[in-house]
């Protein structure tokens, strides 16, 4: 979709260039042929048709499942098994036959319809697994059903190279994770496949879906997988508890708040695929978002002053299952060190000279955060110093975003820095005991500064000689 927006804008600009005489008709035709201007409306119409077919396939699948469930008790086992296998094979065979048709204009609708049938076939996998388990009295938790279902759909996504099936598989595994998270916290006796997936969900998401994102060249698979890794990582290590409790091991807090930003910021597509940087911009944007949220949470004084004892650390148990999350930390640490070694390795080009300061700044912010947490947890409790340091780190990050926005002309970076600084000021004002008149003054000043800075930045962008590529990409 992003590429289609680029082609649509390019077609508009090329028409203007041709009208102004900057390019001739022959060059315009070459651009039209290279970027397929004539297929833009067809692609948009096909996306709309695909959405309709996907929604219809989901409703059709729910209808079939409901019909089978309504008559389930009246059928014997042979009839049940025949219906389930027939439904699964019919939808998938028909969908594959239509989907593999050539992508000509007349066959494109059939291809879209075939993909819809494949989605319906993927949905029937879960129904078949649940009903077969009921028929043969196979016990198990609900999250284990979603784990098996998601892995089966993932195999289809790899085999057919379909983004839609990859996203469906990721959604199913996310459902399995959230439904099985409570059992991950409470019961840890058997090492089943489902429990291993829940225990290592950050690592599993990275190993299974990042290669699939490259295979399908899908931004959405990578984005959803990266966000899922970040969220599940925080739930696994209970970030706020490991900072507040004295008995919490310091390496867990350091890993919870520092490892993922380091891993995301140093991520480089060229280390895994030698063609182009498809996902590095989003990975670095997500790293900045994680750092911003972490610094903002760690800047509150209650988190550092409320030191408590009695933290029940699951990792102190002797069972193997309780130590398995350490595997994720070890693998991500080695991967982060390897990525940073490539990132900071001297390169003799102009681009490296421009970004080396930014990389060193991010590395410094992450290192300082890890050092402060380590000193507070291991050496001696110093509640006042972490409060001051993380407020300073949050301010440095906000000003850094604003400086980058001024250099590259990026609206998102500018407003990100303004939001961080404004949120920090308002939070500190509300956190400490201040009068209503002072609160009113702070709100008025923040509002005036936001409006004034926004208007000034827009005038600054209009004064630039031409929009930079970064502004075109980020605005």
Automatic annotation (TrEMBL):
Keywords: Membrane, Transmembrane, Transmembrane helix. The keyword Transmembrane applies. Residues 17-165 form the DUF2157 domain. The chain crosses the membrane at residues 48-69, 81-100, 112-136, 142-160, 167-185, 197-215, 220-236, 248-267, 279-303, 323-344, 356-379, 385-406, 436-457. It comes from Mojavia pulchra JT2-VF2. InterPro entries: DUF2157. It comes from the Bacteria. It holds the Pfam family DUF2157. This is DUF2157 domain-containing protein.
């Amino acid at each position: 979709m992003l590429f289609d927006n680029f082609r649509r804008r390019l077609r508009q600009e090329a028409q203007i260039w041709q009208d102004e005489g900057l390019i001739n008709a022959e060059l315009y035709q070459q651009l039209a042929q290279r970027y397929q201007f004539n297929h833009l409306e067809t692609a948009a119409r096909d996306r709309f048709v695909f959405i309709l077919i996907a929604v219809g396939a989901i409703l059709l699948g729910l209808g079939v499942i409901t019909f089978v469930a309504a008559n389930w008790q009246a059928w014997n086992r042979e009839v049940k098994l025949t219906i389930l296998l027939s439904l699964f094979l019919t939808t998938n065979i028909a969908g594959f036959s239509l989907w593999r048709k050539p992508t000509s204009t007349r066959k494109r609708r059939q291809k879209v319809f075939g993909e819809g049938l494949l989605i319906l076939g993927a949905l029937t996998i879960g129904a078949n697994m649940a009903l077969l388990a009921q028929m043969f009295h196979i016990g198990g938790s609900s999250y284990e059903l979603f784990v098996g279902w998601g892995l089966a759909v993932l195999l289809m996504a790899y085999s057919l190279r379909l983004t839609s099936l990859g996203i469906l598989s990721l959604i199913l595994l996310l459902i399995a994770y959230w439904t099985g998270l409570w059992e991950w916290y409470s019961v840890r006796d058997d090492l089943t496949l489902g429990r291993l997936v829940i225990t290592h969900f950050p690592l599993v998401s990275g190993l299974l879906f990042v290669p699939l994102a490259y295979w399908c060249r899908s931004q959405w698979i990578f984005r959803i997988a990266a966000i899922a890794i970040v969220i599940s990582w925080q739930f696994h290590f209970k970030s706020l508890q490991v900072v507040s409790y004295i008995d919490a091991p310091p390496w867990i807090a350091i890993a919870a708040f520092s490892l993922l930003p380091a891993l995301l910021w140093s991520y480089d597509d060229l280390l895994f695929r030698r063609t182009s940087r498809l996902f590095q911009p989003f990975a670095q944007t997500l790293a900045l978002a994680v750092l911003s949220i972490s610094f903002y949470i760690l800047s509150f004084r209650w988190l550092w002053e409320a030191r408590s004892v009695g933290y029940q650390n699951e990792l102190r148990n002797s069972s193997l299952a309780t130590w398995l999350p350490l595997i994720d930390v070890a693998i991500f640490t080695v991967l982060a060190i390897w990525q940073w070694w490539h990132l900071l390795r001297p390169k003799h080009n102009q681009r490296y000279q421009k970004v080396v300061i930014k990389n060193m700044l991010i590395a410094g912010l992450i290192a300082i955060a890890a050092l402060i947490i380590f000193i507070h947890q291991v050496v001696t409790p110093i509640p006042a110093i972490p409060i001051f340091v993380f407020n300073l780190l949050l301010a440095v990050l906000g000003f850094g975003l604003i400086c980058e926005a001024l250099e590259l002309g990026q609206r998102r970076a500018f407003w990100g820095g303004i939001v961080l600084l404004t949120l920090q000021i308002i939070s500190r004002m509300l956190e400490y005991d201040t009068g209503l008149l002072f609160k009113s003054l702070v709100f008025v000043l923040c509002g005036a500064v936001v409006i004034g800075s926004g208007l000034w930045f827009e005038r600054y962008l209009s004064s630039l000689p031409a929009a930079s590529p970064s502004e075109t990409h980020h605005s």
